[in-house]
Amino acid sequence: MTKEFPKGFLWGAAASAQQLEGASSEAKKAKTVWDYWYAKEPDKFYQKRGPEHTSNFYYRYKEDIVLMKNVGFNSFRTSISWARLIPDGKKVNKEAVSFYRDLFERLNKEGIKPIANLFHFDMPLRLHKIGGWENKEVLEEFYYYAKVAFETFGDLVFDWVTFNEPIVPIEMGYLNDKHLPGIWDMERAMQAGFNTMVAHKKAVKAFKEANIEGGKIGIILNLTPSYPKGENVEDIRAAEIADAFFNKSFLDPAVLGRYPRVIRDVLKTEGIKVNYSQEELDLIKNYKVDFLGVNYYQPRRVQKGDSKSNFKQGFEKYFRSYKWPKAKMNPHRGWEIYEKGIYDIAINLRDCYSNIPWFVAENGMGVEGEEKFIKNGMVMDDYRIEFMSEHLTWLHKAIQEGSNCFGYHVWTFIDNWSWLNEYKNRYGLYRVDLLNQKRTIKKSGRWFYNLATTNKLIE
Ligand code: BGP
């Protein structure tokens, strides 16, 4: 069966500055939290490989753009490094400007639409030291950075994103130890989360002020549809609360300009206070996004909470995760694969979020030990082809039913470094040999080329 996608559909991949560029302390780039953390605690990082061990895109981007062409991309999203563009928070780094301008120019020339993101987990160290998103001064710095980025690259990039997965540094840094500051504190998590939303709104405001002709601004959220264990009231309520905190907490203010009641009720019951001003509430109400990017990897399965649990350190009081017995698991990574989740997201955006234009901004399959699938020099990743194909089948159905989806980006185009996981889980359409940086197309890269250039999924 052939499934055709709408005319002009975006096919491409996502990446991020810290994960792809390398040159982490070169060309006047200032340190980020990741550079700092690695220098301090290398043992935390899988195989002790830190952010300087990436795929060196900073030096290889010209050749890598050719590789993008060879897998049929018509679009590519990456982030600008805040610490590279404005190392001291004031003076714009000319070397960074030349790098990003050349990158965007070349992408445009090759017919690959650049989508630029401002923040992908890489807080400049000097701002982390003054409290990161907890400090309202950092929000002003972000506003300035956004203005500089729009003014400097607004003639080359028309599709902008403020944040990738803004909830991740909050969840992983304030209710876990996988990002800095690495603490368990619900009150601080809520404040940092709220401030992140205000920072996003300030960037949207800066974007409107920059008046980029034909420009659009969005945000990328990792949405995890929440499914209750049973049909009973308690499990259903648990799923509602999980959905509110993990999806609606950013989705609702970004798209609708307000926070869901459920969140306000829970915080009130728990006596958790968030500091805000009327001016901030007005920003939230007035600066809505033009489009949305959705990263989808896996759903959330929940059951009723444990009333004895302490809310100050986690959500278990209201919902706990459980393993669905029928779940299909990614045997090479351990995450659930639930393709229909993408359809449920699409229909929810159609019905509850004014059918906002959106695209799949990340979807992909991480595989540990992928070298075992190499045959005659090529990774025969049929599992990845099946993964994308099944997600696209559900996405196509949702588009047929009226969901306003305009593209599909895979995570990611070449294997890249991933936070504490280093290269543990490979996601690329190209394999990267870490000894010599050689890129080799995988079977999925060939498959993606046909998909993107025909605009059709052929099963
Ligand atoms: C997303 C992030 C990416 C990337 C990806 C894969 O949440 O936006 O930055 O890391 O997940 O995650 P991992 O490498 O942990 O498998």
From TrEMBL:
UniProt xrefs under Gene3D superfamilies: Glycosidases
InterPro entries reported in the protein's UniProt record: GH (IPR017853), Glyco_hydro_1 (IPR001360)
Keywords assigned by UniProt, alphabetized: Glycosidase, Hydrolase
The protein's Enzyme Commission number: 3.2.1.-
GO cellular component term of the entry, any: cytosol
Gene Ontology biological process terms from the UniProt entry: carbohydrate catabolic process
SUPFAM superfamilies for this protein: (Trans)glycosidases (SSF51445)
Class in the EC hierarchy, top level: hydrolase
Molecular functions (GO terms): beta-glucosidase activity
Zinc as UniProt keyword: no
Protein family membership: Belongs to the glycosyl hydrolase 1 family.
Protein name: Glycoside hydrolase family 1 protein
Organism listed in the record: Proteinivorax tanatarense
